[in-house]
Design brief:
Elements: H1 4-13, H2 27-50, H3 57-70, E1 74-75, E2 88-91, E3 94-96, E4 111-120, E5 123-132, H4 138-156, H5 164-177, E6 181-182, E7 188-190, E8 197-201, E9 218-221, E10 224-226, E11 232-234, E12 242-244, E13 250-252, E14 255-259, E15 264-268
The structure holds 2-amino-4-trifluoromethylsulfanyl-butyric acid and cobalt (II) ion (2 copies).
Length: 269
Amino acid sequence: MINYDEVSQKYKNMNIEVPTKDMIKTPEQIEGIRQAGIINNMVLDEVSKHIHQGMSTQDIDDIVYKKTIELGGIPAPLNYEGFPKSCCTSINDAVCHGIPSDKDILQNGDIINVDCTTIYKGYYADASRTFCIGNCSEETKRFVKVCKESLDLAVKNLKPYSRLRDIGYYIESYVKKHGYTVVHEIGGHGVGVGFHEDPFIYHYGRKNTGMVLFPGMVFTIEPMINEFSREVFLDADNEWTIYTMDGGLSCQFEYTVLLTETGVEILSK
Ligand code: MF3
Ligand code: CO
Ligand code: CO
């Protein structure tokens, strides 16, 4: 574990914002979150194995609930601030927080993001994957690939004592280069002891700016990228689901990552 006070002072002297002490997880907390990450990956693997054209998003929710409970976990979304289901299922122009329903049937050519968060022995891990259903167009497959690559690029460039806004810089510059846009309104977050902790993780920004990131921090990176405009709106009926303003596709991948003294450990993906 780092000497928080000493390291913080060094960066404060350089006028660089530092994380608060509670953003640095203890070795015991890290081990707990690591276990939650293993379970969360197993839940997402179960979804990956069974997802197919013709099934409903409620069927996906049933898989998530059943597998999570079987593994001794709790699906964190269920009853979280009134959210009614165990995972989020966001199809095509849904950016995030889609609510599973037996009325929503996966169609050939759809893309769908399934976002799972598991609580295990009190610790949280959060990750999501986007799936192509049936035969997606080459353009759609390219779009999904660029989204995943933008996240992998941000992780590849992440190191202890990186600056927070570098994450967004790598994501947005890569996405823009390929002709797509990044949603700004929703970001990643600290995670582990709670579901959504500080800091807010931007998916856009200027290099070499923002808070310095210390070893022991655990947070999500979860870029939402749009095919056309980055503008979004909130579903007025359910007050959860976010959609693209122009009806274009939106894609997302999410990892829970741990910053170590030497690099990055992906705890859930
Ligand atoms: N898993 C989402 C995230 O990545 C949060 C979902 S909140 C819910 O932060 F209530 F919609 F489940
Ligand atoms: Co998240
Ligand atoms: Co999530």
